[in-house]
């Protein structure tokens, strides 16, 4: 019994902060916990691909199209897996976003950049077109 308890304790301590993971439709790995999404990058990543992955998984988890994904950590070393690069998003209710300008996408990809979940899912189509010309 003691061996089982020790094994369970070790497993609990070894579990990263983002316990649940899915692959988005564009193939990027997304790990999530509550309202935060960590999207792991691949070579040739784009802003659209990152928002696409976060938006795709947010919709799978039941987010409304008018909720917002806000970048809380730009692309850099992952906090859960230091050997990989990622960006972290937070899912925010529309009522908590003061400025809903359509021009926020011009600010680049840094903390505070945001996009509605609906626009992020649409970014999947844009990213697919840019990559494949389809």
**Could you give a short account of the major beta sheet?**
6 strands, antiparallel
Strand order of the largest sheet: 1-2-3-5-4-6
Number of helices: 3
**pLDDT averaged residue by residue:** 78
**Unreliably modeled segments:** 3-16
- Strand tally is 6
Number of domains: 1
Distance between the termini: 58 Å
How are helices and strands ordered from N to C? HEEEHEEEH
- The helix/strand class is alpha+beta
What's the alpha carbon Rg, rounded to whole Å? 16 Å
Beta fraction of the residues?
25-35%
The shape is globular
Helix percent reads 25-40%
Give a structural overview:
This protein has one domain. With 134 residues, it is of the alpha+beta class. The protein is built from three helices and six strands. The termini are far apart. Helix 2 crosses helix 3.
Mind sketching the topology for me?
Elements: H1 2-14, E1 20-23, E2 29-33, E3 36-40, H2 47-60, E4 68-77, E5 85-92, E6 114-116, H3 117-132
Helix pairs in contact: 2-3
């Amino acid at each position: 019994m003691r061996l089982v308890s020790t094994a369970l304790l070790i497993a609990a301590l070894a579990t990263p902060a983002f316990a649940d993971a899915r692959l988005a439709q564009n193939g990027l790995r997304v790990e999530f916990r509550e309202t935060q999404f960590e999207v792991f990058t691949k070579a040739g990543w784009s802003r659209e691909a990152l928002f696409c992955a976060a938006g795709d998984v947010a919709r799978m988890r039941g987010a409304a199209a008018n909720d917002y994904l806000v970048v809380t950590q730009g692309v850099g070393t992952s906090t859960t897996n230091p050997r990989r690069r990622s960006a972290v998003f937070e899912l925010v209710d529309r009522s908590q976003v003061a400025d809903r300008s359509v021009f926020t996408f011009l600010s680049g990809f840094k903390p505070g950049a945001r996009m509605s979940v609906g626009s992020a899912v649409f970014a999947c189509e844009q990213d697919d077109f840019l990559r494949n010309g389809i």
